[in-house]
Design a protein that fits this description.
Elements lengths: L1 E8 L5 E8 L5 E7 L7 H12 L3 E5 L15 H13 L2 H16 L4 E10 L1 H12 L4 E5 L18 E6 L7 H10 L6 E6 L16 H18 L4
Parallel strand pairs: 3-4, 3-5, 5-6, 6-7, 7-8
Antiparallel strand pairs: 1-2, 2-4
Length: 234
Amino acid sequence: MNSKWISVKADDGGEFGAYLSLPPTGRGPGIVLIQEIWGVNAHIRAMADLYAADGYVVLAPDIFWRLEPRVDLNYDEAGTAKAYELMQKMDRPKAGLDVATAATALRSRPEVGTKIASLGYCMGGFLAYLAATHGAVDAAVCYYGGGIQNSLDVAPKVRIPILFHYAEKDAHITKDAVESVRFAFASHNNARIETYPGVDHGFNCWGRPLYNQAAAALAHGRSLEWLAQHISAH
């Protein structure tokens, strides 16, 4: 893949890194792909390359840069402990602003077409949701976004197409939490909620023990369909 790290100027000063992956054609619609708590690690970079292979210009911003730049953690005990420590210290409003800034930077690139989407996993799913509330993107995909159910007061600000993926057996995001999201978006004319039976939180990540190939493939296909429908040129 044609990929590299670039620098993005933060709105409140400083710069943060972002992993840019270009499609084989060199240009296409844009995706801001937002990390889990383990950083822009090998899995997130692989996901960026995967969506780039699908024809998208993908930018994965370094969300933890204010705490520690270029975090790249493994899914072992030490890496997970460090990941949770960083998540707890993260300034969520500033992280949301950084995602919006990354979206602006992506949209301004010459390789990018007219529309972009936010797509994130877990913590990144929540930040993809925030990007949708800020109007920073044209569509959003949220994989098991932790905390969305606690931030539904801003749901009316979401006026773009938004797709939610949830795991049936997710202890972090219960069935009641998913139903609260469903209720909050019941009047939204372009919101879709998919629940995957028999799988747990993190089912998309092949580096984690809860990975489920069938659910991951199905969710990826649905995400591609959603992106093709809402941000790709027709």
